[in-house]
Amino acid sequence: MVESGKGLTLKKRQAWLRTLLVGLIGAVVASLYPATSTVCPAWTIQVVDTAGNPLRGAFVRQVWKDYSVESASHEQDAHADENGHVSFRPHSWREAA
Predict the structure, then answer these.
(1) Band of residue 82 on the pLDDT scale cut at 50, 70, 90
(2) Cα–Cα dist 59/55, whole Å
(3) Residue 57 belongs to what domain range?
(4) Which of 6, 34, 43, 46 could bridge across to 88 with cysteines, CB 3.0–4.6 Å?
(5) Residue 1, SS3?
């Protein structure tokens, strides 16, 4: 059925509306899924002296801040192990998209 020789047929209009509805429902569902952003990646470092020898027990402080979403910085302290290694875990934040 064509209306006055121009425009969409009823079936094409229904298919177009169905596609639009599915797309809108998909966009709403996707917007409810929380997004995760890594603010600070995982770090493993080795603390050494000027001769390249590991510094056991050295104090290390990691400071991070995501300037686009935070106003305050964060800190994590650690001490080097017997080989001078210090590991920091990654830090992320979650937000609905």
Answers:
(1) very high
(2) 9
(3) 10-96
(4) 43
(5) coil
The DSSP annotation for 44-82 comes to: EEE-B-TTS-B-TT-EEEEEE--TTT-SS-EEEEEE--T
Predicted confidence (pLDDT) at residue 97 exceeds the cutoff of 60: no
User: Number of structural domains, the chain?
Assistant: 1
- In the chain, the N- to C-terminal Cα span, in Å, equals 42
66: exposed, middle or buried (Cβ count in 10 Å: 0-12, 13-18, 19+): middle
Determine the residue type at 84.
G
Residue 7's pLDDT is what?
Answer: 67
Cβ-Cβ contacts under 8 Å for 48 (sequence gap 6 or more): 54, 55, 84
Assigned domain for 56 exists: yes
Pairing of strands 34-40, 91-96: antiparallel
CA dist 89 and 92 (Å) reads 10
Instruction: Indicate whether 1 pLDDT > 60.
Output: no
